[in-house]
Give the backbone structure.
Amino acid sequence: MASILIIEDEARIASFVAKGLKAEGHRTTVAADGAEGLDHALSGAFDLVVLDIGLPRLDGFELLDALRAQGSRIPVIVLTARDSVSDTVSALEGGADDYMPKPFRFAELLARVRLRLRQAGEQPGSREDVVETGGVRLDLRTHRATVEGREVELSAREFALAEMFLRNAGQVLSREQLLDQVWGFDFDPGSNVVDVYVGYLRRKFGAGRIETVRGMGYRFTS
Ligand code: CA
């Protein structure tokens, strides 16, 4: 999980990016203008910046210049209009690590975010092999799980189900999705194995963390 700063004045794009990154287990903060964005970027509280170019108060180029002039090495991925090749080249010269032409699919941005975080070195607290939300923390390397800092024992299947819930916190997951993703094709759709395992996780995580959404499935609340 990493702390990612999104500097973007278009609310629709900012929330699209924030939502996707949160689903991946990252913490996100949105700044809607360049001056506020620069303050945040210099605070030392973030692992990566997603930066729009056209911004009020301070545009993306000015922000990058100021950031690098102050010695910050934080990875920056610039969002740029697809037809602005010259903008993009300037951004890279101005100290951006990568750029993302708009419009883009979230998966494309995510691939770049992962790469830049990996290259920046896995600092403590920004490891990609930890998924954490709503007080539940899963270490994907050691398969250890904690709830509010207290260790809980999970079987391999419970762990896989928990990871699916945490990565999609706040979204409804149907029984079919969970069966496909966690059990594969070995179980028939009429099986109640999902409900049984949700029961196990509720006992271990606290019942309130996984809601039943009638007729639809389950939702992990963070
Ligand atoms: Ca803009």
